[in-house]
Structures are given as C-alpha cells and as structure tokens.
Queue: 3 jobs
Job 1
Amino acid sequence: MTVTLEQIAQWVDGQLHGPKEAEIEKIAPLPKAGPNDATFLNDNRYQHQLAGCQAGVILLTEQNAQYAKGSVIVVKDPYLAYARLAQYMDSTPKSADGIHPSAVISAQATLGKNVSIGASAVIEAGAVLADDVQIGAGCFVGENTQIGTGTKLWANVSVYHDVEIGSQCLIQSGAVIGSDGFGYANDRGQWIKIPQTGRVILGDRVEIGASTCIDRGALEDTVIHDGVIIDNLCQIAHNVEIGENTAIAGCTTMAGSLKVGKYCIIGGASVFNGHMEICDQVHISGMSMVMRPIDKPGVYSSGIPAQTNKEWRKTAARVMQIDQMHKRIRELEHKLAELDANNNK
C-alpha cells in the first residue's frame, strides 16, 4: 500500500514538516527504515538513532523533531500515532472471502449481509451471524450462538452453543469459547460431572488470542466486557467477569468466579485465585500469584526475579529457615524488652 505524507499526517492528526506528496510504502523499525518507509520514535533512549535514520518520514514529538533529518510528522503520542498508521496501512487478508463450497451451514442458521465462511467450517442450527462477519476455515459455531457485526474468527476457532459475541471482535486461531467449566462433585472418590448450563458473553471490540480458552458459566454466565484484550494461551474459567478495557497478557490463568475490574493490566503468566474481586485500575506484574482480593488501585507484584543458580540456592536455603529465624527474633525481642524493663526500674 502506498500513501502520501499528507495522508499520513491527516490520519494520525499530526503536523507535517516535509513534502506532502512524498510517498510511503510500509512501516519499519527506526534503525532499519529506508526512504520508502515510515518509522517512529517513542523512547528518548533511542534519540541518538535519529541522526542516521534514512526513513521517508518519522513520527515523533515536537521535543525530538530538532534531532531528526528529513521529513517528520510531529504528534503528541508517537506510539499511538504508529498504531493508527499501522491500522491505516494494514494488509492483513480476510480470514475468509465468500462462502466456501465445503462449508456446512444449517438451514436454520441466519446469515447477514457480506458474511464470509471458510473451507470446512460448520455453522449449527439457530446460529446468527450479523453483517460482515468472517468465519475462518475449520471453525465451529454451535447452536444458537450469536456473532455481531464485523467480528472476525481466524481458522479453527471453536465457539460452543448459546455463546454471544459482540461487534468488531477478533478471535485468533485455536481459541475455544464456551467449553465446559471445571465443575465436579466427589462421591466417595468418584468425580460426578456438573453440567455447565451458563453461557459466555463477549462484548464489543473484544480480542482473544490464539489457543486461549474461555469456559462457559456453571449456572450464571462468564462475561468479558467491551474492549477487553486477552493474549495467547490464557485460561479463563467459568463465571469469571472481566471489566471494560482490561488487558491480559499471555499464559495467564483465572480460576472460577473471579471478578476483575475495568482498565486493569495483567502481566503474563499470572495466576488468580477464584471467588474474589480485583478492583478497577490494578496493574499486576508478570508471573504474579494473586491469592487475595485487591480493593485499591495500584501496582502489585509477587515472585522472585531470576538470579544465578548459586544465588538462588542461597535464597532458597534461607527461605526454608524463615520459621526458625522468626522464632529466634521473637525470643531476642522478648529478652530486649525484659532488659529495658529492668533498666527503667
């Protein structure tokens, strides 16, 4: 795709310093960008790279514009401008184009305008696909599931029965939406399955990463609100509720009936206990183990940063002695208190 600097400046709401008719073909990293590329500077640590940058145009702040050679577009937030430009120049293909002859579509399914369904996809009875929905090859859409306008499923996504997916959602390959939650009762050592009769409800503009699983509710619904983004390989258990515009990085696991607030950021490989609540605007560092409710916004962390093996072995040995050390400290505190009492007589 070829665009002019004038078009770019208008799209990202920036101020152009350079020839408006010059053309750009793609976006490239700052140190590798050439004359036909756009790039951006978002981190002042890389300001020194501006002097040698050969890009056709650079998106940057007014503060950094003086250090660049050639054309620039001055914006308030270069990373946000880059994101908008990337959308403008996006060449990602459709997950399906038209309805493939091998797709299996129930006569009781309802399709809107411009729906595309890929090879070997299955659409069950009662399913409703709104206008401009794309269903990739090998997908399964279960009975009575509803998918909103402009939503896109990549190949081999499985959406079970009675699921509701909003408009403009994006679901990556291998995701499973609406599988059974992990619900069982124990009868003298034997596990008795509890049918999971709730649903999964995804709001508008929700994005689900590859091979992420979202379980249906046991009795009530699992609910993912508008604007939530979930990375690859995450597990969202039954009856979880995730608030608007929360972001969840890869390999995160959330146990059943957890409630996460709005505008939270969850670092990768974090683990959450179930049946508790995380308030709005909480930032969890990667690989955290969240075992208790959080009722105040802020940054929370757990886990031990990587050390050399030798250092880690020393740390682990000391951790094993914490209880003994605690008892010795309490005894010393008690003796000091007795000495103070005797000295004050």
Job 2
Amino acid sequence: MSTTPSHSVVAPVLAEVVRSGFPESRHRGSLVLLAPDGSVRTALGDPAAPVYPRSANKPMQAAAVLRAGLDLEGPRLALAAASHSGEPFHRSLVRTMLDEHGLDPAQLQCPPDLPLDAEEAEAYLAAGEVRARITMNCSGKHTAMLAACRANGWPTGSYLDPGHPLQLLVRDCVEEAAGEEISALGIDGCGAPLMALSLTGLARAFRSFVLADPSSAEGRVAAAMRAHPEYVAGTRRPDTWLMRAVPGVLSKMGAEAVQAVAFPDGSALAFKIDDGGGRALRAVLARALELLDVDDPVVDRIGEVPLTGGSVVVGEVRATF
C-alpha cells in the first residue's frame, strides 16, 4: 500500500487573506459538493486524491465502538465522536465515562494537552492546571475505545495498534461508509490509526451517516452528534453553530483544515486546504454552504473572519470561488 499520495492537479486558490485592500496570502485546496442523489455536483482541485481526514474520521470511529457492542447514547456518544474544546463540561463527562467503565485516566494513550479552545486554555492555565490526557480534544474518543475493549475482553494496552480488533473494525466502518478502500495508513496526532480517503469518499461517508437507519450504529452516531453538538466541538466552534442552526445537518472538522458536512436530503461537502491553514477553513466552509443553497444567518457567522491591524479591522479572509 502506498503511503505517499500523488497529486497530479494543481489545486486552485480557495481563499485569500486581504489586508488593507491588498491580497496578502492565498490558500489552495480541493473541494467536492455532492448532490442529494450522491453524484458530484461541483469539484474543485482534485477531490479524488487521498487526504488524511484527521478528526473528520471520528464519526466512523464512534460507529465502530457501537458495532463492538459498547452501549453509548446522547452526550456520551457525541463525545466519542468529538474534537472537544476542553471546556469543563467536556472534561467532567470524560471523567464520568472513565469511572463508569472502570477505567483510569492513565490508561488513555492520547497525549497530555491543553484545551483546544484558546479562551478555555487561558482560563485553564490561570487556574493553575497543567496539560492532561483528559483535557486533550480526543479524550472522549479514546475513552470510548478503551470502554469497547473492556466490554469485549480485548487488550487495552494495545488498543491503538492498527492490528487490534477494534482498529480493524474501525477500518471496516471507514471503508463501508466511504465506499472505497483506505489508500494510506498513518498515525493521527492523538496516536490513533489514521486512514486516508479521497475527499469524495469522505463526503460520501458523511452522506451515508445522515441517510442511515436510525437504529444502525451510523444513524445513532449522527443523531447524537446533531442533538448534542456542543459535546462534538464546543460552545465557540463552527461545527456547533452549524448543527444547532440547520436542522439535520452533520458537521465535523479535522486538523490541517479538513471539513465534512452532510444534509438530510443527501447533499454533502468535503474539502481540505492544502497548506493546512485553519484560518481559511471558515471562509471556505461558508462559501461551500452557500453553493449548497443553505439560507441561514449561521453562514454569515461562520464566514466572517476579520483581519485586524492593531485594534481596527483592516481586512478579511475570504473565499475566492
């Protein structure tokens, strides 16, 4: 299996940074929009090329722990699919879940970290706290993975090994949802196996979750994420805003500027900014939502990315497509 993606298409500029009327920087990337019937409606760049979805794969990982027999619902299931902000309610529920399944925080193999949310990180440090595994944004996923291992009598010390029964189940879930085989296998920032897909496959995966039977693992994950988006992200995050504002939408970002969204009518989108520039993500997401005819004030809220000079707004990050 090749672990080096081959990109034969020069990606277009999806966003630019404009300061005082001058285009200062540009962010290239690829994007795909799917029509309700699953066909490709718009393709920019090379959405057939493999990318690492990073945390946009978390819904599939959460479906795998359900298929493994772990019984999670509501906020607990949403947290299993989360890149949480490290707010107090996130950390509290991770601790509760660990206790409920007889687990110790030391068993988590995600790295110690500060809260993902910048404001929360400042408050956390001001309170005298230090980096912790529970605080790391993937701790809900890791807790659910450990709990699934405990429920099945599988080894917990090697739960991140790509050959572990749980990770083989994750692979099945990813490939089934995307409708394609993974094209590369790596290690995510949290230490979990990371499975590469095309952006088209990622959009198909999210589409399959919103269209899934409500009683299926995929349908249950989608329902929990949409009902409890603050546990998927946080109170100051675009995924939360979008899932709160638009009924039935499923939204999840990934590190290195990856985003996937699906709607209950079967339309979906996925994109990646080539340079991993997270500052371009919101502008590109807002424009993609416009192209899918999402008519809600949340689109403007997501797309408003002001650029300051001193304390004055002097420009913006804006989409170019």
Job 3
Amino acid sequence: MNPLPTTMSAWCQERYGGPEVVVQAQIDVPQVGRDDVLVRTHATSLNAGDIYVMRGEPLVLRVAFGLRRPKQRVRGMDAAATVVAVGERVTQFKVGDEVVGELAGGALAEYAVSTASRLVHRPSELDVTVAAALPVAGGTALQAVDRAGVATGQRVLVIGASGGVGTFAVQLCAQRGAEVWALCGERNRPLVESLGAAATFDYKKVQPGATELGEAEFDVVIDIAGTARLRALQRLVREGGKVVLVSGQGGRVLGPLARLTAASIISVGSKRKLLPLAATGNQDTLNSLVALATAGSLAPVIEHVSSFDEADAALARAADGHVVGKIVVTVTG
C-alpha cells in the first residue's frame, strides 16, 4: 500500500463570509486520534448547516464554531469515503472499508478525519453519490418523523417539502402509511407528489391559516421552512396532535433559538404540542437510512452533482437557499 500523502487539496475559509471566502488550497492531511478514522473522501453533499457555519450566522453559533474565524476551516459534513487509517482504539473499522458518515466538518477535502462513532459501513451496492446525500438531511427527516410518531392512517403536513430534509420527510411519512400533504414551490409540486404526497400546495399562495388547509385537519405537522406563526401551526393539528419544528427563521444574533424557545413555552399544558427538534448524528439513524436506500425504499433527490474543482460554485448555489433536494460534490474517484 502506498504511504499516505502529507498534504491534500481542500476548500478552506480563513474568515466568515459568503461563498467567496472559501478557496481551494493545499493543506496538511489531518492527524488521526486514538478514537478517530481517517478517510479518503469520494463525495460530500451540502447542507444548510454548512452555509450557516460558512457565514458565521446566526452569531450565537460562533460560540461553538469559533468566535473570530471557523475552528474547522473546511466545510462539508456528509461523506462517503474509504478508510485509510484508524486510531489505536478503533475496532469496528479497518483500512479499506467503505463508509458513510456525518462528520463535524472537513469533507470538502481529499482526506477527512472523523470519530468512529459518526461512521457506518457502506454496502457496495449503494452508490457513493446517493450515500453522500443521506446523513444530515436524511437523518434530520427520520428523527422528525420518529419524534412525531407518524403512523398508518394519519394525515401529515410537511412544510418546506422540496428541500433536502423535506424530500426525505415526504418519502418517510408515505412509507409509514400516512396521507401526506405538502407545501412547496409551484414548480416542485409534481416532484413532491411523485415522492408520495397526496396533496400539494404552492407555499406562496397557501400557508397555515389558509382555508385550503383548514383547522384541526392534521395529526402531525413537520415544519421545515420555519416561517409560519406558532399559533397558526398549532391550529392545524387535532387535539393530541404534534407539530415538529425542524428549523426556524430569526434574527442575526440568535437565529431560530427565540422561536424554538417560545414553542416550548406555548406547549406547556397544551393538547397540541410544539416540539423543537435537535437532530443529532448517530449510527442507529444512519444505519436505518443506509438500509432503506440500499433496498431502494428511500432515494435522495439530487438537483446537481458538481466536480471538486467546482465546489465554490456548488456552495454559492446552496447559499442561494432554493435548492431542490441535495447538491453533491464528487471529491475523488
């Protein structure tokens, strides 16, 4: 086996800002800690979280990611990759294993390091492009569906159904036997219906409170867009119903935190619960997604596949905020 290189190509940022601050550069290959796995990245997909960290907004996230500049200079959380080195305490992976995972960042590079607990094995029949699109968006959708307890015979409304999380959520709810209604852009309605939605509406014309949706018509609402008033969302569900809040709009400083905090307060004593979701990467969730995708039961919607040299354009496209499904960047063959 050839020795590992000491440097690699990566897309890095030295300061917070827009896509223009992310540049391709040669940097050191990361070191492997005792509980870590070093992988050669084949593909990564972009998520809203990558854009938030790139911009450093809302400002509250800088407490965790770096006050003046990002601690992790390389964006990219989703990864489909090959293991090239393992730490001394890692027993579940070996060099040569194909893996998929949700990293803490660093996947927009030829090599990335991850704790072993963030990775799972990738079956050979699961394409790397598909695998790379699963972890963050698919994991968020699956945890939202689980938190809501979506079941056969329920009526579920997905708000923001054509994005990365939304396209997964529609599929997962339909698979569980729910009747799925969805809000999305007008041009995306046929796509969302093909994923399993029984009824779709143009979000520019129909929002919570509109007569088309009615009141107390749903068992579950999964709100990904994060713009509707909380009380309006509550009125959509029946007694005992649940509204899962995946995201939320907010100010430049706190972002969605104020909205999500208000939701928790409003829910106290209510028979129509508002449930903020704090999705976390874990092996159980990822293994479930991999199994579904390998069986052909779950398929990411991939709007565009970019080459590694075009990653800056891919970031600009993702930052625009109107991506249908996912953008995947191929890194190495």
